[in-house]
């Protein structure tokens, strides 16, 4: 997986000055198997100084030239127009627990993947909950904590 975090001068172009946005570039639109995820956040999210934005671009690595694989996302952030002040890139393997993990009472989650919406991370948490308790988490039938205290 590769993830690039950028400090931006302004919002992503063509987003109507949005304070935040998430863009998913389908892999098929840029000649890839994997989608490219772009997230932009501004200072109201307490992640950047006033007047600056943070842009994050990530994807699964598919080639030996992994640094260039985020270029379509960087272009959307205004890389060609000079909107990117600086950037920090990290390349990391995607890690999964070995089969049988948990039999000793130690449960391990998977690495964060390239997605920016955390769906896979939430699914992993649900999987670990079931491994630990032996039951699926049933959010629809949970009691509110305040109700439990009153009963």
Structural class: alpha+beta
Radius of gyration: 19 Å
What are the segments in which pLDDT stays under 50 over at least 5 consecutive residues?
none
CATH superfamily of the domain at 2-91: Guanine Nucleotide Dissociation Inhibitor, domain 2
Q: Strand order across the biggest sheet?
A: 2-3-4-1-5
Q: Could you characterize what this model shows?
A:
The model has no long low-confidence stretch (mean pLDDT 89). This protein has helices spanning 71-76, 119-133, 145-150; strands at 2-8, 20-25, 36-42, 53-59, 84-91. The protein has a domain at 2-91: Guanine Nucleotide Dissociation Inhibitor, domain 2 (2-Layer Sandwich). The chain is globular and about 55 Å long. The protein contains three helices and five strands. By secondary structure, the chain is an alpha+beta fold.
Which labels suit this protein?
5-stranded antiparallel β-sheet; alpha+beta; Guanine Nucleotide Dissociation Inhibitor, domain 2; 151 residues; 3 helices; globular
How do the helices and strands line up, and which of them pair or pack?
Layout: E1 2-8, E2 20-25, E3 36-42, E4 53-59, H1 71-76, E5 84-91, H2 119-133, H3 145-150
Antiparallel strand pairs: 1-4, 1-5, 2-3, 3-4
Brief overview, please?
By secondary structure, the chain is an alpha+beta fold. Helix content is 18%, strand content 23%.
